[in-house]
Specification:
single chain, 140 residues, mainly alpha, three-stranded mixed β-sheet, 5 helices
């Protein structure tokens, strides 16, 4: 079949975002996560800081490769890491690195209006920080 006259995504595939849109989305998501951090109850922020779980990053790629690269960079073993297991995640708490990651380009966030995007990113961040707090509660 001839694809002339078709726009990206007409065949049901994901239309690629422009580089500018991707950078803007990533920047906005980082701002939202920063605001979500400040919106945490002060006692939760203090506990996360005390246990070294106050680091976070927002990326624009599947989380499996990001986690793999971070673990290698930290000199940790990645032998048993299945990147595909993490690629479907929109957020993740990595206990060994004490860092929370959000994938701002995850397909589940596509098509959201600005308000819904903000709510989703904030909720993802809070959810992942909840994992960090829960892990701390279990180990004490």
């Amino acid at each position: 079949m001839n694809d002339v006259g078709k726009s990206p995504g007409d065949d049901g595939s994901r239309a690629p975002q422009s580089q500018k849109a991707t950078v803007e989305r990533l920047t906005k998501a980082r701002e939202i996560v920063d605001l979500a951090w400040r919106d945490l109850p002060p006692t939760h922020r203090a506990l996360l800081e005390a246990i070294g779980a106050d680091k976070f990053d927002v990326v624009d790629q599947p989380l499996g490769s990001t986690v793999n690269a971070l673990l290698i960079s930290a000199g940790l073993s990645v032998a048993a890491l299945d990147e595909a297991e993490f690629d479907d995640s929109v957020g993740i708490w990595i206990p060994s690195l004490r860092v929370m990651l959000v994938n701002a380009s995850h397909e589940s966030l596509d098509g959201l209006d600005a308000r819904s995007f903000e709510a989703a990113i904030a909720r993802i961040a809070w959810h992942e920080w909840g994992h960090a707090l829960r892990a701390r509660a279990i180990t004490t």
